[in-house]
Specification:
Blueprint (H helix, E strand, L loop, with lengths): L12 E3 L2 H13 L12 E7 L5 H11 L2 E7 L2 H10 L6 E2 L3 H9 L19 H7 L9 E14 H8 L9 H4 L1 H7 L4 E3 L3 H8 L12 H14 L3 E4 L4 H7 L4 E5 H14 L5 E4 L5 E9 L7 H11 L2 H11 L2 E2 L10 H4 L8 H4 L2 E2 L6 H16 L2
Parallel strand pairs: 2-3, 2-4, 6-7, 6-8, 10-12
Antiparallel strand pairs: 1-3, 5-8, 5-9, 5-10, 5-11
Helix pairs in contact: 10-17, 11-12
Pfam family, one: SBP_bac_8
Function: Required for the activity of the bacterial periplasmic transport system of putrescine.
Keywords: Periplasm, Signal, Transport
């Protein structure tokens, strides 16, 4: 997922180590030789979600290893999957979410990890790695980077004003009940443009398991969403973050860390908007974003060096502190800011963990069916 979005970052290409790059360019323009320049420059090409890593971490990695980072971004798993299945993606590290990791492993898209090169592998969180193994048996192809939940973020005052002081807000019915959604229409509802996240999350409302592959179950969710689509301002991967922070909308169905980023931005702006996040009582989806190496990676050694660096506890914590998502690195917890570690929206308590489900990949036929269902939800046709 994301999944933290900030302005002017969409699909940007960023080279880390600007001072070094600028110096090289100047030297080239002046026709000067660069002392000590290696015959082959070490580089790692990374394809990740927008603003999903602390830039200081990338700078530090380059300074320590001499490996230049070329960093591209995307905003949904479909784009990543298309590039990898087409081959010759040009990337050495990618960050697929769980079900897409599973599909791409089946398609033979990744190199198995050489764990002898990952000395920091022991820092991973066994419970998280165990859940991730549903997609990647034996954790052979990927390690967890971040994990989180899909739930509801809301502007406390605006929602209470419209639904009442005693309204139950920790339920998917807040957005799936047409009467409730209609009351919130004027202050604005936005939802993730991601059937892979929303449909499994909402299936328990209809008495089905989050991992149900029955078409009748999937249709129940999309039919319910279709009935409230007139009250939904927009379906988008990330625009709800700033919209919620600004008060442009009052409800966002989205990723835990994204909502907490909106909360942080509202607090920094001192605009008086109080934002809360809930995991609905019916249950919600637990998702994982992972580091994996494409099978045609040009720099697999550099990719492994990067993954191992990211598995250092203090590095993993720096990224969690930056993006406000839970790390799959257990040893990192002692370096995570107390206000993040104690936030149940980021690190859920055990009772909430029991309500979280994992969805495995749909087969190709079901994927096509869901695409048709989702198109109807988004467009009304």
């Amino acid at each position: 997922m994301a999944r933290v979005e900030r302005p002017v970052r969409r699909r940007s290409r960023v080279r880390i180590g600007f001072g070094v790059a600028a110096g090289m360019l100047l030297a080239a323009l002046l026709g000067l030789a660069l002392p000590g320049r290696a015959a082959e420059e070490r580089v790692v090409n990374i394809y990740n979600w927008s603003d999903y890593i602390d830039p200081k971490v990338l700078d530090a990695f380059t300074q320590e290893t001499g490996i230049k980072v070329v960093y591209d971004t995307y905003d949904n798993n479909e784009i990543l999957e298309t590039k990898l299945l087409a081959g010759r993606s040009g990337y050495d590290i990618v960050v697929p979410s769980g079900p897409y990791l599973q599909r791409l492993i089946r398609a033979g898209a990744f190199l198995p990890l050489d764990k002898t090169k990952l000395k920091n592998l022991g820092n991973l969180w066994p419970e998280i790695s165990g859940r991730l193994a549903v997609y990647d048996p034996g954790n052979a192809f990927a390690v967890d980077y971040m994990w989180g939940t899909t739930g509801i973020g809301y502007n406390v005052a605006a929602v209470r004003e419209r639904l009442g002081a005693n309204a139950v807000l920790n339920s998917w019915t807040t957005v799936l009940n047409p009467a409730s959604a209609n009351k919130l229409k004027d202050c604005g509802i936005m939802m993730l443009d991601s059937p892979e996240d929303l449909i499994p999350s909402m299936l328990p409302v209809f008495g089905a398991k989050a991992d149900s592959k029955r078409w009748d179950d999937l249709t129940l969710v999309t039919d319910a969403l279709y009935k409230v689509r007139g009250s939904v301002r927009k379906f988008h991967a990330s625009e709800y973050i700033q919209a919620l922070a600004n008060g442009d909308i009052c409800v966002a169905v989205g990723y835990s860390g994204d909502v907490l980023q909106a909360k942080r931005r509202a607090e920094e702006a001192k605009n008086g908007i109080e934002i809360a996040y809930v995991v609905p009582k019916e249950g919600a989806l637990m998702w994982f974003d992972t580091f994996a190496i494409p099978k045609d990676a040009a720099h697999p050694a550099e990719a492994l060096a990067f993954i191992d660096y990211m598995l250092r506890p203090e590095v993993a914590a720096a990224n969690t502190n930056f993006v406000a998502y839970a790390s799959g690195n257990l040893a990192a917890k002692k370096f995570v800011k107390p206000e993040i570690l104690s936030n149940p929206g980021i690190y859920p308590d055990e009772a909430t963990m029991q309500r979280l489900s994992i969805n495995t990949a749909w087969d190709d036929r079901t994927q096509r069916y869901v695409t048709r269902l989702w198109t109807r939800v988004r467009t009304g046709r």
